[in-house]
Amino acid sequence: QLQLVESGGGLVQPGGSLRLSCGASGSTLNYYVLAWFRQAPGKEREGVTCISRNGGNTDYADSVKGRFTISRDDAKNTVYLQMNNLKPEDTAVYYCAAGDYGLGYPLCGYNSMDYWGKGTLVTVSL
């Protein structure tokens, strides 16, 4: 059973940066498509970015393109989210998730995620 634990959240001023990490245990991440989601107060959870099993394909929500970067280090069993030029509207609880899309699936996505972390809070404010 894969277990995911996020870390790295906190309070940051607008324009600042944070790097979130999501460490895995119980299985190896290289079997899975990985994604970051977020949920802001009073809003539905949304997919922010995802990365394919081999890291060759990524996708970003329009709201974070050019500011956020997802990466994975399967040797460390960890997925990262580098967030730059943060804005107040980025304030949310951020979740990492893993999905078994099958060995041959070359892309990434946000549906059918099988495992979720408990989230880490990011607050962007003066």
Polypeptide structure, described:
With 126 residues, the chain is mainly beta. The protein is 0% helix and 47% strand.
What class would the helix/strand composition place it in?
mainly beta
Number of helices: 0
Strand content: over 45%
Q: Kindly state the mean pLDDT as a whole number?
A: 96
Oligomeric form: single chain
Features:
126 residues, mainly beta, seven-stranded mixed beta sheet, four-stranded antiparallel beta sheet, 11 strands
Short description:
The chain is an all-beta fold.
Topology of this structure?
Layout: E1 3-7, E2 10-12, E3 18-25, E4 33-39, E5 46-51, E6 58-60, E7 68-73, E8 78-83, E9 92-99, E10 115-116, E11 120-124
Parallel strand pairs: 2-11
Antiparallel strand pairs: 1-3, 3-8, 4-5, 4-9, 5-6, 7-8, 9-10, 9-11
